[in-house]
Amino acid sequence: MKTRSKEEIRQAVRESYGKVAKAGAVTLKTNQAASCCSPSDISADTMQTAFCGCGEQEFALEQMSSVMGYSKKDLDSVPEGANLGLGCGNPVAIATLKAGETVVDLGSGGGLDCFLASKKVGETGHVIGVDMTAEMVTKARKNIEKTGASNVEFRLGEIEHLPIADNSADVIMSNCVINLSPDKPKVYGDAFRVLKPGGRLAISDILATVPLPKEVQTNLALVSACVGGAATIADTEKMLKEIGFQNIKITPKDESRELIRAWAPGQNAGDYVVSAYIEAIKPSTDIS
Measured between alpha carbons, how far is 18 from 29 in angstroms, rounded to an integer? Predict the structure, then answer.
């Protein structure tokens, strides 16, 4: 069974999300739910024609977003096109954002969580979305134009190598993206670098409850569908501890399993992965 290189995985994910950015909100055929991540073998044409009418697609997205933890008020407050149906939770809900804070969103997509965060931190705060897909960054920047928001920006970059200064962020958020990275210790390590002392993680991601079968880990479509690259809960906690995070809290959402099964039909994905909230704090003083 072929082992996938880190660059193969990155390229598959980049291509998958480029298609999503061009096509708009992800909705799959045959009554499947809108997907956290679009499998790499689904074309833009397929996604665009998944529903006959716009209203039907919007309804599916609203239901999906409700399951993830967003309220109708949340969705009505962001520009059209910011919600692409790509998440697995609502990290803003656990971030306890305050006015004046600086927030970095890893894998910001169309900017849904960034725009929600911008309202929490206010004019004195700042929100930076980072995405490795040029099409996503372009889409998100166009969404800024729709709102006139002056406290949000989007930067092109990999989440393993954030284009952000050291010790500059109060909060790092992410929504169903870190599982896509082939080098998760680097992601968390760079997040630690960027956070101010006392800064915090507020992440929604897909984690494995048992080690994934090799055939799942090496299937690029399943990796792009937020399943094949999931780290175990135990490994995630270990990574965070080794990097230096404290007050680590991982909260699995068992109700997400049914939704996850729709992302990879026939793979029984809900049997071994689950959506979870990941929270942690960078120590306020150097513990090295």
Answer: 19
Are the C-beta atoms of residues 144 and 152 closer than 8 Å to each other?
A: yes
pLDDT tens across 68-88, in order?
A: 767 788 777 787 878 777 788
Q: Do residues 79 and 146 lie in contact, with contact meaning Cβ atoms separated by under 8 Å? A: yes
- The SS3 call for residue 29 is coil
Q: CA-CA distance, 101 to 105, in Å (whole number)?
A: 13
Bridge pairing between strands 126-131 and 246-253: unpaired
Structural tokens at position 45: 């044409």
Give the span between the Cα atoms of 66 and 272, in whole angstroms: 23
Q: Give this prediction's pTM.
A: 0.84
Domains and CATH numbers, the chain: 6-281 (3.40.50.150)
Could you identify the residue written with the tokens 């997040």?
191
Question: What is d(CA 47, CA 37) in angstroms, rounded to the nearest whole number?
Answer: 12
Give the residue-averaged pLDDT of 93-100. Answer: 96
Report CA-CA distances (Å) from 222 to 13, 93, 256. Answer: 10, 28, 17
C-alpha to C-alpha distance for 121 and 115, rounded to whole angstroms: 10
